Amino acid sequence: MGTKAMIHTIAGAARGFPIESIGTLLDEPFTGVVYLASSGIKDFTSLRGKRVGYVGEFGKIQIDELAAHFGMSQSDYTAVRVGMNVADAIKRGEIDAGIGLENVQMVELEEWCKETGRPSDEVKMLRIDELAQLGCCCFCSILYIANKPFLENHPEKARAFMRGVKRATDFVTSFPTEAWGEYKQYKKQMNSSLCDKMFERSFVYLSRDCSNVPRDWNKVTNYCKRLGVVKPDFVPNMSNTYLSWERLPDVDDPIAKQRVIAEHQQNVAKNGGVLAGSIPAK
């Protein structure tokens, strides 16, 4: 068992790996092309002549598909594989922009800007969901995944695991300061002001019911078909059968919810979040 982004979970299954999502950790964290305003980047087409970092194979596929959508060819930019070191690569001047998360790489760069005497709002993002007209950031939702043979042979263990996840989630969302303090005692390398800020920026994305959202899965599956990652007859590899509680109702207007979250995250970046006593967006 482990955790993985939705798009990678789908791609893994499409390549024959027997994996299935049994729940959700983070719902739709904003993901996109992260850059500094001083780079001269203003929109996707201004990536011409730039070095664009990506984590792995599917990040490259996304960049190339977006480039084609905006009338660009792969020769118009230089794609650079940097793994999870997008923020560091931007700091070192190795890339001009790169695919990252609002609650991780953007936080890293904002804190670096403060340390180097730059305004933190120098850090910008072109959100992939908006560029690709997806209507959600769910392709990068972080999931709990498991090996299918394990699930078939030990379903009771998967259910017990998810019950534990739900109890932990309820504790974190109800008592975030206490929960984060306990976690830092266990994971001492997370005891830093940078990690505090990442936790605050991640808090709003925590899935409250830990469930797979069928609507999101359908959107991302169709996106993967558009990218050529999966075959047209691919069926989403997820299940909520290991949850022993009712799912929360789906949001009526996901795009409106994302606008609320975007405004909330800007406020957290400026004034602090749950550790500073701010109320998270619902």
From TrEMBL:
The protein's role, per its UniProt record = Responsible for the formation of the pyrimidine heterocycle in the thiamine biosynthesis pathway. Catalyzes the formation of hydroxymethylpyrimidine phosphate (HMP-P) from histidine and pyridoxal phosphate (PLP). The protein uses PLP and the active site histidine to form HMP-P, generating an inactive enzyme. The enzyme can only undergo a single turnover, which suggests it is a suicide enzyme.
Q: Which family does it belong to?
A: Belongs to the NMT1/THI5 family.
Q: Indicate what this protein is called per its UniProt record.
A: 4-amino-5-hydroxymethyl-2-methylpyrimidine phosphate synthase
PANTHER family tied to this protein: 4-AMINO-5-HYDROXYMETHYL-2-METHYLPYRIMIDINE PHOSPHATE SYNTHASE THI11-RELATED (PTHR31528:SF1)
Q: Give the required cofactors.
A: Fe cation
* Subunit-level organization: Homodimer.
Catalytic activity from the UniProt record: N(6)-(pyridoxal phosphate)-L-lysyl-[4-amino-5-hydroxymethyl-2-methylpyrimidine phosphate synthase] + L-histidyl-[4-amino-5-hydroxymethyl-2-methylpyrimidine phosphate synthase] + 2 Fe(3+) + 4 H2O = L-lysyl-[4-amino-5-hydroxymethyl-2-methylpyrimidine phosphate synthase] + (2S)-2-amino-5-hydroxy-4-oxopentanoyl-[4-amino-5-hydroxymethyl-2-methylpyrimidine phosphate synthase] + 4-amino-2-methyl-5-(phosphooxymethyl)pyrimidine + 3-oxopropanoate + 2 Fe(2+) + 2 H(+)
The record's annotation in Pfam families points to: NMT1
A GO BP annotation: thiamine biosynthetic process
Protein biosynthesis as UniProt keyword? no
Q: Could you tell me the keywords of this UniProt record?
A: Iron, Metal-binding, Pyridoxal phosphate, Thiamine biosynthesis, Transferase
Where the record annotates domain SsuA/THI5-like, the positions are 1-179
Extract the GO molecular function terms from the UniProt entry. Answer: metal ion binding; transferase activity
Lipid metabolism: present as a keyword of the record?
no
Q: In which pathway does it act?
A: Cofactor biosynthesis; thiamine diphosphate biosynthesis
